[in-house]
Amino acid sequence: MSGGISNITIEDLHVWDSAAGVRIKSDKGRGGYISNVSISDIRMERVKIPIRFSRGSNDHPDDGWDPKAVPRFKDILISNVVSVNSTKAPVLEGVEGSSFEGLCFKNITLHGIALSATWRCEYVTGFATEVFPVPCLELRNNSYSSWLHHSDWHRYNEKA
């Protein structure tokens, strides 16, 4: 079982020629938590998938892992992102039994993605504003999050 991380700020990044720009990866049996994360002011060039939260970390060290140990993800803010020459829409895949909760996306523009490409979202809640291309329904329902009242949200909201 993993521990966890919280109260993380990542800002002023330039990512180029990469498979993913912002990536969070976990799966059943990993346990742990990721919470209160602010990621802002990112410029990406030639990044295949600009934002990817995914399963697939099922490389357990031994046969004694606990499939009931699900990771917890809560209150992740991504703001002020521009990506050029991206080829795929964002992928947000939570873990069954443990959704990504309180995701906030603000002021995100992803150029180069085909108009027919759609965000792939599963087991996520949150909201998005000023995002192109249009995000998945799970983020357009504007689920309320206490994260909106967090001081970092207000600080990044003022920068936009």
Could you characterize what this model shows?
Strands 1, 2, 3, 4, 5, 6 and 7 form a seven-stranded parallel β-sheet that branches. The longest helix has 9 residues, at 151-159. This protein is mostly beta strands and 160 residues long. The termini are far apart. It has helices spanning 137-140, 151-159, and strands at residues 4-25, 33-54, 72-84, 91-93, 100-110, 120-122, 124-132.
List keywords for this structure.
single chain, 160 residues, mainly beta, Pectate Lyase C-like, 7-stranded parallel β-sheet, 7 strands, globular, glycosidase, Pectin_lyas_fold, secreted
Can you lay out the helices and strands and say which pair or pack?
Elements: E1 4-25, E2 33-54, E3 72-84, E4 91-93, E5 100-110, E6 120-122, E7 124-132, H1 137-140, H2 151-159
Helix content: under 10%
Task: Indicate the structural class.
Answer: mainly beta
CATH topology: Pectate Lyase C-like
Backbone CA Rg: 15 Å
How large is the share of residues in beta strands?
over 45%
The structural domain count equals 1
What's the number of extended β-strand segments?
Answer: 7
* Amino-to-carboxy terminus distance: 38 Å
What is the architecture at the second tier of CATH?
3 Solenoid
Main sheet attributes: strand count, strand direction, barrel closure: 7 strands, parallel
- Describe the global form: globular
